[in-house]
Structure formats: C-alpha cells, structure tokens
Specification:
CATH class of one domain: Mainly Alpha
Helix content: 25-40%
Shape: extended
CATH superfamily of one domain: Cytochrome c-like domain
Number of helices: 5
Radius of gyration: 23 Å
CATH topology of one domain: Cytochrome Bc1 Complex, Chain D, domain 2
Strand content: 5-15%
Length: 158
C-alpha cells in the first residue's frame, strides 16, 4: 500500500510540474483583435496566395502554385485557435513532419514558407490571422452510432 501511495504521489507531482508553463509559456499573452478586411489585403500583399488558396482569394497562377497548394479555411470539426494560426505564420516549420513533408519542406525538413518575422509588423500579423481565421467554418462533429448487439449465450439451446 505504501508503494502504491508513493507511486500515485510521484505521478501527481510530475503531472503538476509538467503543467507549469514556465517563463517561455504563453500564459498571459494576448494580442488585440484584428481587422479581417485589412488582413485580406495583407494576405494578397505578402503573396500568401502564391502557395495558399482560400474561398475569398484564389491562388496565383505561378510556378510555385503547381508545386505547393495549401488550402486555408473551409469546414472543420476542430477550431483553429488564434495561437495555432499565429504560430503557423511566425514559425512555419513547427507543423512540418519530416515523414509527410513532401513538397512542403526542403531537404533539411524546414518549411518552404517564407518567414515574415522581419518584414511584417505586429498589426499586419494580427490582421492577417483575423482574415485566415475567418475562412474556417466549424461544422458539428457527428458521433458514430454503434448499435448494441445481443449475442445469445452459446451454452443454452433455444
């Protein structure tokens, strides 16, 4: 019993320590609301539509368009959070899987997306993310219906 108690205490302690966001965590970090219309203009000005396509802005007809075409927006059963979208812009390599990167990454596994950190203002980023987020529509998740099956007991004869 003592071993079980100690093990549970250890698991709880590790769990609580793991929840600490630390000095690099995002707790308390919030950006103001953006202007989606201005974000649409930024999306076009920064050439996002050379590799991305959305329902409001078609993809440019360039050489890159044939190699890379990433759809932004549409119906989803999971909300794309503001933080996920900001991270996708400022650190495009964070979601690129080495195994499934295909045309999305270079030979070292880094995203081919241009990093705009040194050329985009915070206001432009906020507006761009507001536009991209407005392209998503949350569709209700439908649960699978599994009927209950009755299996007769094999030992009993009907």
């Amino acid at each position: 019993m003592k071993i079980l108690t100690r093990a549970l205490l250890m698991v709880a302690t590790v769990g609580l320590v793991a929840c600490d966001s630390g000095p690099t965590g995002s707790l308390g970090f919030t950006l103001p609301d953006g202007n989606a219309e201005q974000g649409k203009a930024n999306y076009i000005d920064f050439g996002c539509n050379s590799c991305h396509v959305s329902k409001e802005v078609p993809q440019l007809d360039t050489e890159d368009a044939t190699a890379i075409s990433v759809t932004l927006g549409g119906e989803t059963t999971r909300i794309k959070t503001y933080g996920e979208l900001v991270t996708s812009v400022i650190n495009p390599s964070h979601k690129v899987s080495r195994r499934k990167s295909g045309d999305m990454a270079d030979g070292s596994g880094k995203s081919k997306m241009v990093t705009f950190n040194d050329v985009m203002t915070v206001t432009e980023l906020i507006d761009l993310v507001a536009f991209v987020q407005s392209q998503y529509t949350l569709s209700p998740y439908s649960n699978s219906n599994y009927p209950i099956y009755w299996i007769p007991d094999g030992d009993k004869k009907p």
